[in-house]
């Protein structure tokens, strides 16, 4: 029996990108899926790609979660359990801090950090009662350093790292695992769908994203990290060198980031 067979897995940001790739990969592994994102039609499209897997579509605006406990109750009534929560939903940013409206800053924090916190707190009582489960938080290498034009996105990912590292310690004597996954450049539409300072879509792709790791390869690596209950996992290619470079050669790092941000 495989690790994910018959496990009920709630996946946010499931309508595209890494989330879509994770849904397909988990379906192949025999998981039961709960797929959440704003666009119900896109969730249905992804569900159709999941073959014979049992799928519950649970549309949700991660920028404005109305009633997380009610969503948990709906999942429990359908599957009877929640084994894994994957907090994957996210939206990137392409704007200078001074040019970003505070309302946009709040939205970026809600989607990239507060949604993960809110849903995690909603499922934890179920997992604590069963003394089992996993919480997966999709962060980013920008959770380790800042980058021009990504100030609030980086802030949200720093918050993800801080919260889920602390939570992992609080749950260390339970059967609940917490994993922080920090991707680098993954070939998705994250740059195209990035938000500008006024809230419009950026619409321009990033060469780094275009050349990034395919989303299905990233998903396979995430599943491996989940199976081994890794506390922290970086996923990417040469860009992962930015993490130690930031720590050990900061002057060169910031010079390089300024150069790259102009591209």
Brief description of this entry?
This protein is of the alpha/beta class and 263 residues long.
The average pLDDT value, as a whole number, equals: 95
CATH topology descriptor: Rossmann fold
**Any idea what the CATH superfamily is called?**
NAD(P)-binding Rossmann-like Domain
Shape: globular
Strand arrangement, major sheet: 3-2-1-4-5-6-9
Structural class: alpha/beta
Number of helices: 9
The domain count comes to 1
Order of helices and strands: EHEHEHEHEHEEHEHEHH
Plain-language structure description:
With 263 residues, this protein is of the alpha/beta class. The mean pLDDT is 95. It has one domain (8-261): NAD(P)-binding Rossmann-like Domain (Rossmann fold, 3-Layer(aba) Sandwich), CATH 3.40.50. The strands form two sheets. The protein has a seven-stranded parallel β-sheet, with helices on both faces. A two-stranded parallel ribbon has the order 7-8. The chain is 45% helix and 15% strand.
């Amino acid at each position: 029996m495989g690790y994910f067979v018959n496990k009920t897995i709630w996946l946010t940001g499931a309508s595209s990108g890494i989330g879509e790739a994770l849904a397909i990969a988990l379906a192949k592994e025999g998981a039961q899926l709960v797929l959440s994102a704003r666009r119900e039609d896109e969730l249905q499209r992804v569900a159709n790609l999941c073959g014979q897997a049992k799928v519950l579509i649970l549309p949700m605006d991660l920028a404005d979660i109305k009633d997380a406990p009610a969503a948990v109750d709906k999942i429990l009534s359908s599957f009877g359990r929640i084994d894994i929560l994957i907090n994957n939903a996210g939206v990137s940013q392409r704007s200078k801090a001074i040019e970003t409206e505070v309302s946009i800053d709040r939205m970026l924090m809600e989607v990239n950090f507060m949604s993960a916190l809110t849903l995690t707190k909603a499922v934890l009582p179920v997992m604590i009662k069963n003394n089992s489960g996993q919480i997966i938080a999709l962060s980013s290498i920008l959770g380790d350093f800042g980058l021009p034009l990504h100030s609030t996105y980086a802030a949200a990912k720093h918050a993800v790292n801080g919260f889920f590292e602390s939570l992992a310690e609080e749950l260390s004597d339970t059967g609940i695992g917490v994993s922080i996954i920090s991707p680098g450049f993954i070939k998705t539409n994250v740059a195209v769908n990035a938000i500008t300072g006024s809230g419009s879509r950026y619409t321009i792709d990033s060469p780094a994203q275009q050349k990034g790791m395919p989303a299905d390869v990233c998903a396979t690596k995430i599943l491996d990290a989940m199976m081994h209950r890794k506390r922290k996992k970086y996923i990417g290619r040469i860009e992962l060198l930015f993490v130690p470079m930031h720590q050990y050669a900061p002057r060169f790092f910031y010079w390089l980031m300024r150069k790259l941000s102009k591209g």
